[in-house]
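Usage example:
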Amino acid sequence: MNTLITLVICLAVLAGFAWTFRRLGQYGTRNAPEYRDMPFGVAFGYVLGVVVLVWLGLAYVASLGSDPAVANKFFFLGMAINAFVVFSIAAWLFRVAGQRVGTQSTRKLFRSMPLTASFGILMILIYGILAIFAAWIAPYGQDEILQGVAANIIAGGDVALGGDPEFPLGTDQIGRDIMSRLIFGAQNTVGIAFATTLLAFFLGGSLGFLAATVGGWTDQILSRGVDVLMAIPSLIFALLLMTIASVWSSRLGIPLTVFMVLIIAVIDSTRVFRLARAVGQNIVVMDYIEAAKLRGEGMWYLVFREILPNATAPLLAEFGLRFCFVFLTIAALSFLGVGIQPPLADWGTMVRDSAAFINYAQFAPKAALTPLLAAGAIALLTVAVNFVVDWMLHKSSGLKE
Amino acid sequence: MGNVLSIIVQRLALGVLTLLIVSVVIFVAVNMLPGDFAELILGQGATPEAVKIIRQDLGLDQSLVTRYFGWLGGMITGDLGTSFAQLNFQTNMGGGGGVTVADQIAPRFANTMFLAMVTAAIAVPVAVTLGILAALYRNTIFDRAANIFTLSSISSPEFFMAYVLILFLAVLNPILPSLSNIYAGMDFSDRLLKSLLPALTLTLVVTAHMMRMTRAAIISLLASPYIEMARLKGMSPIRVIVKHALPNALAPIINVIALNLAYLITGVVVVEVVFVYPGIGQLFVDSVKIRDIPVVQACCLIFAAAYILLNLTADIMSILSNPRLRHPK
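Running the assembly step on the lines above writes:
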């Protein structure tokens, strides 16, 4: 209740500031149109923005202070600000580099790119490199329980706080290096999500194009089947099927992860099917399809040589969004404990295993780093992909407003 | 008006049909389990006699079709069977009259509905207001910041949002409790306080989408002649948007609100696990882990029913608010 009252008082004070700000502007500039016609909401927005910026600056200074009680409180905020600044600068540098290096067309592309999109591309590149070269980059193996190393070493490498400079991000509950596991997590989580999305696109895409080309009963049966599958919320359906798969996998000796890839690919292919069918139906009525049919080309040729090349652009944007969805579903399943199975390192599982450490954040903020880093790694990649897709859609739709 | 009524009845019938087919899908999926329930219940110590008795008890010796209709009839009359965990307890410890699945689900279902309602009560007004503001101040720094913020919160996983909120609102600044231990007989304000943090997490996730759609729906109308007219007669921008653009943009906005409430159903599972909120999502996940098939089946059907119902509502709402949809081409 007290917080609520404080909040209301703060807002009232801000409103007063906004009014004063507009008034002062009107006096100071002798009623310049900008201040004369300024709506109250805009004035309030400016004041709020300035207050938030000042507060962030103060919090950043506080996070560097020597008093641990205060510094701990603002540790994460300081880190977030650091990360924001570093990422912004990196994205800006990347864009500048892209404008200088490369062929004519890529340079042109980079010139019109917003900072968010270049940040997204940079992040995707970094994740890709980490995922492909994980085995060379990571200092230890993903399931290597290090001999003679304590478990739960705190992150930061400060010996006085229980850290170890050899393990900058600490070790987990059974003494595995967390940094290595994070890097291998890129390989496992992103790799599995990527494979699943590819499979979903192959399934949904080919069936969708088939439905569009053949039409008639095939189309009806496939579409109604997809309607039914889409009537069940995807995470719920995935959890139900994973229950059944977990029994099968122990019986057949096939890893559960394989079942997970198949299940999520099938569930997700329904969404791809919808799009592919809609796009395909627009293409099927074209003259060149008619010509190919008259030439006597087979179904395979029609779908993969005539329709697919003309449907790549919308499918590519969809691929990015679908990848995010699949990635988040896998992360959620792993977080709930039925996704990617140990000993494979995986971000969702890491968050679940170390989530309890967040409660120590007030006294030892670095202990809470592990779950946040793992969850943040998931968030960062999906945000990056979304930024790029958003930019691509914006560019292709040609919307200016 | 008769036309509208017949369309609604038609949609409802379609919804019921979908639900029936979904129940078949769920039933068939569950029956793809290797072995059968009896062995699963007894686990390691399954003797042939015990398996036989339990098979008879559960009616597993009957055909698939008979069992399906038995299960469906039970579902409709509210008899959801008994969970394996309870059965196991009874067979090992003796005693009867255990807790049925319906008894387990009912209070949790009420809790989940409470959480969803609190979320909707916060998210819908906030999202629509922010969407209107973003449309009003489009292409300003506020709009850009809102765009980046919403895009990030749409694309982060729910548990990331949940832990960040826990970190800042429960651990570093102890304002709200990080665990929602809700029990029967709590008074309303206490209950609200305890479920505020999960509700805020869900709000963050759904608000972003609703706000973007509100903004897009309003902006797509701004080029219309009647908006131009309103502007030319000297109306203030906020009045133009609220009085002229918003009513016409209502159909897509209502639609996206209903769809997002349907999305809440999925989001609720992860969030309930994070906050140990005693809702149906947590029961579902726990049952999935111990392979408690009757509970999984029942929860799955309830989730699917709620999902279909909300999608149906979105459908009917958009037909009601847009007369053009009442006349099929």
